[in-house]
Amino acid sequence: MTVEPQDPSHPGTRFAVLGPVRAWVGGAELDLGSPQQRGIMAMLAVREGAMVTTDEMIAGMWGDAPPRTALTTMRTYICRQRAMIERAGAGNDVRIDSASGGYALCLPRDALDLSHFTRHDARGAIAARHADWRTVTEEKSAALRLCHGQPLAGLPGPYAHIQRVRLEQQIMAARLELLHARVNLGQHREVLPELIALAAGHPLREDVQALLMTTLYAAGRVAEALMQYQRARRRIVDELGVEPSISLRQAHQRILVDDPSLAGAPLPATAPAHRRPPARPLPHRVVRRSHRRLPR
C-alpha cells in the first residue's frame, strides 16, 4: 500500500476519480481490485451519496447484453468492497449502504476529488461573470490541480465511458476559461505555448482555435493569428464539409480590421456547456469595448 498526504479537512480519507480511480483510508491506499470492481466503486463515488440501482449498475458495466451471472457478480464486488473498507478501519465514515433496489457510497464531506473540482469550477464561473480574472485564475487552477490524467482511466463499461467524456469536457472547459482569464490579465506570451499545443491537439474545436487567434493578436502576432484561421478553416472544411461557425469567422474579421476590442472578447462556444459570459477588455491593451454584434 502507498501512503498519500493527508487532507487536513478529512485526514487520510480520500477518493479520486479525476484520473485512475483510487481511494485512501487512514492515509493508506486501498486495493480496489479488478477493473470491473473499480468500475462499480466509481459508479457509486460519482453519484456522491445518491443511490445507484442494481439495474443501473448492471447496464453501466455490461450494457445491453449482461451475462446471466451479472447480478451475482455485482453483489460479489459489493461484498468485497465492504470487506476491504472494514479492514481499512474506516469505521462509519466510509461505508456502502444498501437501499431499496440499490446501493449508495457514503463518504466524509469533500472526500471526493470531484466535489472539490466542482466547487472550485463554480467559484471561477461566478468570478468570470464579474470579470474578476485573478479569482478566476486561482479557482480554475485549484480545480485543474485535482486532475491526474484521464478521468476514470482504464475502467470498462458504457457508464464509465459516458462519465469519462462528460468529465473530460468539463476539464477542457476549465482549461480554456483559465487561459482566457490569464489572457485578460495580460499574460499573452506566457499562455501561448499551452494554447498552441491545445489547438494542435483539438483542430476541430473552434473555441480553442478562436482563443489561440485572439491571443496571438493580443500578443502582437497578427500575421500568425490570420494564418491560424486559415489552417483551422481548411481543416474544418476538409473534414466536416462546412464553413467555420459565425463566431470564428467574426474573430477572423475583427483581426482583419484590427479591432482593438478583440483581445477581451468572450470565448465562442461549440456547445452550450462552453458558453462564456461577456468579458472586459485587457486594461493595458485596449479601450472599453462595445458589445454590439458585428454585421453578418
From TrEMBL:
The keyword Transmembrane helix does not apply. Residues 273-296 have a biased composition (Basic residues). Pfam families: BTAD. Keywords: DNA-binding, Transcription, Transcription regulation. SUPFAM superfamilies: C-terminal effector domain of the bipartite response regulators (SSF46894), TPR-like (SSF48452). One of its GO terms (biological process) is regulation of DNA-templated transcription. PANTHER family: TRANSCRIPTIONAL REGULATOR REDD, TRANSCRIPTIONAL REGULATOR REDD-RELATED. Belongs to the AfsR/DnrI/RedD regulatory family. This is DNA-binding SARP family transcriptional activator.
